[in-house]
Design a protein that fits this description.
Two copies of one chain form a homodimer.
Chain A: H1 16-26, E1 35-36, H2 39-45, E2 48-53, H3 63-73, H4 76-79, E3 83-86, H5 90-101, E4 106-111, H6 116-124, E5 128-132, H7 136-150, E6 153-154, H8 161-176, E7 193-197, H9 202-214, E8 217-223, H10 228-235, H11 257-266, E9 269-273, H12 275-289, H13 295-307, E10 315-320
Parallel strand pairs in A: 2-10, 3-4, 3-6, 4-5, 7-8, 7-10, 8-9
Antiparallel strand pairs in A: 1-2
Helix pairs in contact in A: 1-3, 1-8, 3-5, 3-8, 5-6, 8-9, 9-11, 12-13
């Protein structure tokens, strides 16, 4: 566990070597997702945008990278009891799939009333759902009870050494081995900056490790209505989000401690975006790439559209973090 | 022009060799689109479904194949005056792009009140729009006037030798050189049947030429609310559609003469589907492949879900014909 300490704290924080190790560990399970481009999006942004398609990742989001790395990192005797987590979103489905691939059980604590599509995703990968009240406190209480009753290792959605290292592999591919989709225009050159959504900071943490090592500028993007990462970075300490009323359901969480320890050192800036920008960016992606991207995944493009590209960056790598849009919420047009 | 006559008629009808010639002619402009699979969709259908992603084709639909072949087949002296057509949909944008790539002008007659996204698609590829009343008669009258005033060759959306041959190249790739998307499961073997949407019959006509030559069974699929192809096939003569009130806007047209001359000889059956099936299939595609497919492109999957796979076919090749969904029509969820 190289880079096991950060800033002298006792936190167990991964370093770049852990991202490389994760890439090797998960290579046989995880998809090396393609990079797509769109001339129309480039024109609107005013720079070349390389879109890393983690919406095409297994279980529909980059979350499978971290979950896979965490599950594969367990020693056999620890894995035998299974894994558990609390999640209202993509981590639950990702962990269920990662567990199934190791033939161990997964239990996911989910708030009652979570979208049908999210429940189905966990169940379709063989995970067991345990319901709780829709508060963070209730989730944590229920998770503790699950661990007491069933055993099993808790795999936190983002504040976890191996999860952070696993999420970093998306940026590692984007920098070291971008593979333009066969139907898409090739990139004009390597990306100069990395821009990813930030909720709990798993993806941004891992991306930061890669950017720092490879000499790429790193930026995060989050909804203005859940701007805890921006405020935390400014303040130099974690400021939890309150009442994050945003359509970007993957980004409603507050930064984790390990995540902040990494992010605060190297991230150049956190950009915040309006709800309108998120929807507009999501539409643009659907229209011009023909890819279904969920609201959280559209947040980096929203930042580029709202703020313009980072000064001096001609080519920006963006992670389209997931494709699990809640189609039920889109309105009557898609619902027979 | 092999196969220049069909059933003794004087119609100028392409044969398989013309599809091969089209493939060579358009190779440098047209994308060899990937084939994706979905275990979940296979499970629901009860057979393996190979989804040919023409929604990822340039201009967002297979229509670019036919338009490209038609424009590249013009002699220089004929091309100089430009091209024109009437279209309320994907053919207009495809022709505009094909013309721009040959540096000739394109005029597209469109009904007033056509969706904004369709107008924008024509304009973004440099086509000029001339508006007319929203009736077929008005479109044809206006097109004649455009030809009289501006000159230019008319490229019919489907009842055209080179358009049919060009559309056949999608099925040719699917049969001879399917390229599984890098993030998708490989196919278990070659497809045994081909199933494509049918409106005017350009795609089904070209697909039929390929299926007949390569020994694949060929099926069409259309909305029950625009079931002219099914009725025409049964009756042995073209029965035009009346008041085709379907969400599958690409399939509201009646069969063309050249198209019917090919289709009647070799197509095994035309399957009709409900509007509910179309929406359900479109949703499934969005959810499980993360690809935006327009209603017309979801019609073949709708047929498989509604009727089951063709008896004896374990692996079915389906063309996802286009991705230009009218997102404005989807409801408030996508519209900031």
């Amino acid at each position: 566990m190289s880079g096991g300490t950060a800033g002298g704290s006792a936190l167990d924080v991964p370093g770049f070597a852990d991202v490389e190790a994760a890439a090797r560990r998960i290579a046989s399970q995880v998809r090396h997702t393609p990079v797509v481009t769109s001339r129309e999006i480039d024109r609107l942004v005013g720079a070349e945008v390389a879109l890393k398609c983690e919406n095409l990742q297994r279980a529909g989001a980059f979350k499978f990278r971290g979950a896979s790395n965490a599950v594969l990192s367990l020693r056999d005797e620890d894995a035998a009891g299974g894994v558990c987590t609390h999640s209202s979103g993509n981590h639950g489905a990702a962990l269920a799939l990662a567990a199934r691939l190791r033939s161990i059980p997964a239990t996911v604590v989910m708030p009652a009333g979570a979208p049908r599509v999210k429940r189905r995703a966990v169940e379709s990968h063989g995970g067991e759902i345990v319901e709780c009240e829709p508060t963070l406190a209730a989730r944590e209480t229920m998770l503790r009870r699950v661990v007491e009753e069933r055993g099993g290792r808790v795999i936190h959605p983002y504040d976890n050494f191996h999860v952070i290292a696993g999420q970093g592999t998306a940026a590692l591919e984007l920098v070291d081995d971008p593979r333009p989709a066969p139907w898409s225009e090739p990139l004009g050159g390597p990306v100069e900056a990395l821009l990813v959504p930030v909720g709990g900071g798993g993806l941004l943490g891992g991306t930061t490790l890669v950017g720092a090592k490879r000499g790429r500028r790193v930026f995060g993007a989050e909804p203005a209505r859940a701007d805890d990462a921006m405020r935390s970075l400014r303040a130099g300490r974690i400021i939890p989000v309150e009442a994050p009323d945003t359509i970007a359901d993957g980004l409603r969480t507050s930064l984790g401690e390990r995540n902040f320890a990494i992010i605060r050192r190297e991230v150049e800036d956190i950009l915040t975006v309006s709800e309108e920008s998120i929807l507009a960016a999501m539409r643009l992606l659907w229209e011009h790439t023909k890819l279904v991207v969920e609201p959280s995944g559209a947040v980096p493009l929203a930042a580029l559209l709202q703020h313009g590209p980072p000064r001096g960056a001609a080519r920006i790598g963006v992670v389209l973090s997931g494709g699990n849009a809640d189609l039920d919420a889109l309105g009557p047009g898609l619902n027979p």
